[in-house]
Amino acid sequence: MxxxxxxxxxxxxxxxxxxxxxxxxxxLLAIVALFAAxxxxxxxxxxxxxxxxxxxxxxxxxxxxxxDRGQIVCGSRDALPGFANADSNGVIQGFDADxxxxxxxxxxxxxxxxxxxxxxxxxxxxxxxxxxxDVLVRNTTWTATRDGxxxxxFLFTTFYDGQGIMVPDSSSVREIADLRNADICVASGTTTxxxxxxxFSQRNxxxxxxxxxxxxxxxxxxxxxxxxxxxxDVSQLTGFKNDIENNNGATQRILxxxxxxxxxxxxVLDGNDELAQAxxxxxxxxxxxxxxxxxxxxxxxxxNSDDPSIQRxxxxxxxxxxxxxxxxxxSDFAVQVIRQVGNYEEIYNRHITPLGIPLQGxxxxxxxxxxxxxxxxxx
Length: 379
Known about the structure:
Blueprint: H1 13-44, H2 63-69, E1 72-76, E2 79-80, E3 84-86, E4 92-93, H3 95-108, E5 114-118, H4 124-130, E6 135-136, H5 144-148, E7 152-154, E8 159-161, E9 163-168, E10 182-187, H6 191-202, E11 207-212, H7 215-223, E12 229-233, H8 234-246, E13 252-254, E14 262-264, E15 267-269, H9 273-292, H10 299-302, H11 308-313, H12 333-340, H13 344-351
Parallel strand pairs: 1-5, 1-6, 10-11, 10-12
Antiparallel strand pairs: 2-3, 3-4, 7-15, 8-14, 9-12, 9-13
């Protein structure tokens, strides 16, 4: 860049020198500005792993990064009966764990290509934000604050739950009003704790919250009689109720009133749109398969169906060619999900029904049966 200057008459040498420095500095700043603009333009037009959502977290794990790695990391739990509980071999089993496997089956065609990583309640969103995990499938309630401040993109509700309260069957407590001045066990940093505060404050019922960051500690305190009641999602309380009673513990009772709505489902980091799309359709495929009447047992015969909707869903168009709607998944992803893990009904009956929480007629039933599960058309 060449700057033209006009020589001034009778300009003193000192003034001339100062003027030259100023012009040189201006030229240098102009060059730096042009270079920065070029870099920004290059970054904006890049087709790399970044996103256009405003999310600047460089550690977010894109769908392509996960594919290149050959494994997806799914944040969950390891001690919640029915949802994510380590078996005698240390393998995590349950409803949430199976949805981690659903995602792996959809992306890789192999449900074993997943690391199910136990994450503490207080750390789950930090783990998602830092890139420690790719997806969170950990009985986590979808709320506005978590959708916003925690940068979590909730994708599809896999389980419609609600908060309840459990007491020993020997207790005289029959309804919430009977818990006046009671010590109540609750997990800290959860919507459960917030709901407890709201409901008891609204009803003017004084109580003493006993909060625990770890469910294992909470359960131990409850069983030791340090709390007169335990509040959590009804499904979670039911799982622990059965576990306590089956291990020669005292009989437990869950009060009849449900005090909140708790839509539970998987989440990825905000702005990770391709991964979000793939996870959403992977999870929804279990519900769609159930609605189509496709199970892991009849999958082979259903692949010969002459129903064009079923053909598309299983990866073929009416001409027998691969059907690819460009959602980041192989055309036969639903086939792999159903074959290796099963449809939603199979997953639910495998893990939740044994807890004593029936599927039929519940909120988690299909919309055609009066439930809330409903998926968009696959076309």
